[in-house]
Write a structure and sequence with these properties.
249 residues; globular; binds zinc ion; alpha/beta
């Protein structure tokens, strides 16, 4: 199994503990995702230290206030590192009173361009901004491999699949109230499916009282496999293959 989206730098245990716990649970690859330049640098450093860790370099929409040409140039440089296997997370977030929308757009467009230029997949965060995110990707990200991280748009699933985007499910798919999302995870074609933790957030249901860690992607994977009516071993292989192809690891 793999974790296609974690934030090792926000997790409390050390990277060494997180990686060891993950390996023990059968989680052999972790993509740790940057949310600004310093967090992206930390992601690259973790990837350099641990063979099972790879980095995504990005600038989160909630951190986009004042996003500048210098920020773009810095991201471009970090993203060119061979240990960087995706760009993002980026997108729109209108849930939190975070950054002004125009700054979010600047950061988003810059990261679409960097992903296209470097031929690396693009990781999308979208919250309360479904139309805006889908429209921007449609208009500007053609030819870029798009991953909708922590997928929460079950009513837009068909449209997203029609665009050829990858759908990554996080621990919230396991929550008892998330019935639409649980149904959606059974409908994604095999070759477009990923799972993730978004650790330290969104701990899957069976261990919800704990802080999330990459090892707990297993509980989400078990849930999604059950929804799809497949055994864990074959689901494990499927997700491993999808991630290996997408992230080139
Ligand atoms: Zn994230």
């Amino acid at each position: 199994m793999i974790d296609s989206h974690a934030h090792l730098d926000f997790c409390e245990p050390s990277n060494a503990e997180l990686v060891a716990e993950a390996l023990e649970a059968g989680v052999t690859r972790i993509l740790t995702v940057g949310t600004d330049a310093s967090s992206s640098r930390a992601a690259l450093a973790a990837a350099a230290e641990f063979p099972s860790v790879f980095a995504a370099v990005g600038h989160h929409p909630n951190n986009a206030t004042g996003f500048s040409g210098a920020d773009r140039a810095e991201l471009r440089e970090l993203a060119a590192d061979p240990l960087c296997r995706a760009v993002g997370e980026t997108g729109f977030d209108q849930y939190r009173d975070g950054a002004p929308l125009e700054d979010q757009r600047l950061a988003f467009e810059a990261q679409i361009e960097i992903a296209a230029e470097l031929h690396k997949p693009l990781i999308i965060h979208t919250r309360d901004a479904d139309d805006l995110s889908i429209e921007t990707l449609r208009e500007q990200a053609s030819g870029v491999r798009v991953i909708l991280h922590c997928f929460t748009m079950p009513t837009r699933l068909e449209e997203c699949l029609a665009e050829g985007w990858w759908i990554s499910f996080a621990g919230n798919v396991t929550y008892p109230k998330a019935t639409e999302l649980a149904a959606a995870c059974a409908l994604v074609p095999d070759d477009r499916l990923l799972v993730e933790t978004d650790a330290p957030y969104l701990t899957p249901q069976p261990r919800r009282s704990e802080r999330n860690t990459p090892a707990k992607v297993v509980q989400t994977a078990e849930f999604v496999a059950r929804q799809r009516g497949v055994g864990y071993a074959s689901f494990d292989r499927l997700i491993d293959d999808n991630a290996a192809e997408l992230f080139g690891w």
